[in-house]
Design goal:
This protein has 4 helices and 7 strands, in the order E-H-H-E-E-E-E-E-E-H-H. The chain is α+β, with helices and mostly antiparallel strands. It is elongated and about 45 Å long. One of its GO terms (molecular function) is fatty acyl-CoA hydrolase activity.
Length: 143
């Protein structure tokens, strides 16, 4: 099972008046992690879009544990939590430079045809991605 990691610096524009990262910015960071995971597995999301496939979010669950702050580096850990051939759930953990877990969460996606928004079987359109997702799914007991 592969866990992608990406480290970024918290920018001032990402914080709110309290000096902590505004909650919606964690979603952007999860997208960075998801893109990194796909690249690690040999795919680029832009290539899926070019081929007429999109991967819209159908559910998000974010548990905020500790505030990230301006000037800190945070590391995004991303993995495949669940996958059934049509629907994929990515798991996330965002940790600050002191090792404090700032966020734990998941996002659920379904691959669809761009023109109809009808779900597709990933195995049919992208057999290598299907295999990579199945091989790298993090089992519940590992979470």
């Amino acid at each position: 099972m592969h866990i992608a990691t990406e480290t970024i610096s918290v920018r001032y524009a990402e914080t709110d008046q309290m000096g902590v990262v505004y909650h919606a910015n964690y979603l952007i960071w999860c997208e960075i992690g998801r893109t990194k995971l796909m690249e690690d597995l040999g795919y680029k999301y832009a290539e899926l879009e070019t081929s007429g496939i999109l991967s819209p979010v159908v559910n998000v669950n974010m548990n905020y544990k500790y505030p990230a702050r301006y000037g800190e580096d945070i590391t995004i850990h991303t993995w495949i939590a669940e996958y059934n051939g049509i629907r994929v759930t990515y798991g996330y953990e965002i940790v600050n430079q002191r090792g404090k877990v700032c966020l734990e969460g998941t996002s659920e996606h379904v691959c669809v045809k761009k023109d109809t928004f009808r779900p597709i079987a990933v195995k049919k359109f992208f057999p290598e991605l299907h295999a990579a997702y199945g091989e790298n799914k993090k089992h519940r007991e590992e979470q």
